[in-house]
Amino acid sequence: xxxxxxxxAHYGTSQALFGMSLALNAGSVVTLLGRNGMGKTTTINTxxxxxxxxxxxxxxxxxxxxxxxxxxxxNLGLGLVPEGxxxxxxxxxxxxxxxxxxNHLGVADPWTIDxxxxxxxxxxxxxxxxxxLLSGGEQQMLAIGRALMTNPRLLILDEATEGLAPLVRRKxxxxxxxxxxxxxxxxxxxxxxxxxxRIADHHHIVQRGEVVWSGTxxxxxxxxxxxxxxxxx
Length: 233
Ligand code: ATP
Hints:
Number of helices: 10
CATH class: Alpha Beta
Shape: globular
Protein name: ABC transporter ATP-binding protein
CATH superfamily: P-loop containing nucleotide triphosphate hydrolases
Bound molecules: adenosine-5'-triphosphate
Radius of gyration: 17 Å
Domain ABC transporter: 2-233
Pfam families: ABC_tran
InterPro entries: AAA+_ATPase, ABC_transporter-like_ATP-bd, ABC_transporter-like_CS, BCAA_Transport_ATP-bd_LivF, P-loop_NTPase
Strand content: 25-35%
Keywords: Amino-acid transport, ATP-binding, Nucleotide-binding, Transport
Structural class: alpha/beta
CATH architecture: 3-Layer(aba) Sandwich
C-alpha cells in the first residue's frame, strides 16, 4: 500500500533522511522505532509532503507522493495524527471534528461525530469544551478522531501516547485496535515498545535517517541484542 524507496530529505543543508526504504501492506499495523532525533518524524512529514523529499520515491497504492502538495496527499486517503496533537485551541471539541470532516473517497460507512464518540465515549461529555480546556488525553483522542473524520485508508500517528498516563494510553491503543479491526492500515511512531508489540505486525528501526532493521513482532521479541542496541532509551 505504502512504499518508500531510497528517500532523502534535508533541512537546509543538513541531511535528515539518508535513503529511507520501507513498505506497509494494507490492513497492517507498522511501527517506526528508534531513539530521539533519528528521523522518524521527518519520515512521516516527508510522506505527508510537509517536508519535501530531495530524492527517492514514495508511492501510495501506486500513486507517487513526492512533489505532491500536502492537502493532495491527504485527499488520497492518508490521515495524520501529528506530534503534539495540534488541535485547534479556540474551537470547541465538536468544531474540531467538523473542521476536517470529508469523504473524498466516497467511503461506504464514513466516520461521523457519533462514530468517534462511540470509539472514545469520554469525548461526548466534553463536546462543547474549547480545545485548549481539554486534558492531554482528551486532546489526543480528539486528534485521532479528527484524523478519522477525513476517512483515511492509512492512519499515521506520531507519538500519539506521549506524556499520557498508562490508563489513557491503554484506551488509545484499544481504540486503535478497534479501528484496525475495521480494516484500517496504521503507521505508528511511539516509544512504548510493550504497547506496540501488542498491536503491531511489523517494525522498522530507524537509525540516522535510514532503516537498519525490519521484522515482525516475533522477530523483535526474540532479538534482544537489536532491542538493546537501538531501542533502549
Ligand atoms: P523524536 O522522537 O525526537 O521526534 P525523530 O526520530 O522523530 O525524533 P526527527 O525529528 O525526524 O527525529 O529528526 C531527525 C533529524 O533532523 C535530527 O537530527 C533533528 O535534529 C533534525 N531536524 C528535525 N526537524 C528539524 C528542523 N525543523 N530543522 C532542522 N533540523 C531538524
